[in-house]
Amino acid sequence: MNTLPVTEPNSGEHAPAVDVRKFVLDVFPLARKQRIQNSDALLESGIVDSQGVLEVVAFIERKYSIVVTDEELVPENFQTIDRIAAFISNKTSR
C-alpha cells in the first residue's frame, strides 16, 4: 500500500500551478493565514508586494530556466497563482 501523498498531477499540464502554489505558501505567510485559492488576488490583497513579485520572478527563472523580461513584469501576469502558472506555460511552450 502506497501511503505517500501525490504532490503533482500525473500530467505536466498543471505542474506550474502546483509549483507556484507551494512557493507562495512557503514564502508568504499571509497566503497560509488566508488559505488562498489559486484564483485569489495576490497583489491587491497584499499577500505579494513589489519585492515579493521579484521573489516570484526569481523562483520562476530558476525553476523553469526562463527569462522574464521587463515588459512581462506587469500585474496581469502575477495577479493570481493561476495567472502565474499560465504565464509559465506560455513561456515554456514557445
Topology:
Elements: H1 15-27, H2 29-34, H3 50-64, H4 75-78, H5 81-92
Helix pairs in contact: 1-5
Can you put this structure into words, describing what you see?
- This protein has 94 residues and is mostly helical.
- It has one domain: ACP-like (Non-ribosomal Peptide Synthetase Peptidyl Carrier Protein, Chain A).
- It has five helices and no strands.
- It has helices spanning 15-27, 29-34, 50-64, 75-78, 81-92.
- Helix 1 (15-27) packs across helix 5 (81-92).
- Mean pLDDT is 87; it is low at 1-13.
Give the gist of this structure.
This protein has 94 residues and is an all-alpha fold. It contains five helices and no strands. The protein has a single domain, classed as ACP-like (Non-ribosomal Peptide Synthetase Peptidyl Carrier Protein, Chain A, Orthogonal Bundle).
Quickly count the domains. Answer: 1
For the record, what is the CATH homologous superfamily label?
A: ACP-like
Overall mean pLDDT: 87
Number of strands: 0
What letter string, H or E per element, gives the SSE order? HHHHH
Helix vs. strand class: mainly alpha
Shape from CA axes? globular
Specify Rg, calculated over alpha carbons.
Answer: 13 Å
What proportion of the residues form beta strands (DSSP E)? under 5%
Percent of residues in helical segments? 40-55%
Largest sheet: none
Runs in which pLDDT lies below 50 for 5 or more consecutive residues are 1-13
Given this structure, which CATH class is correct? Mainly Alpha
- CATH-defined architecture: Orthogonal Bundle
CATH fold node name? Non-ribosomal Peptide Synthetase Peptidyl Carrier Protein, Chain A
Number of helices: 5
Separation of the first and last Cα atoms: 40 Å
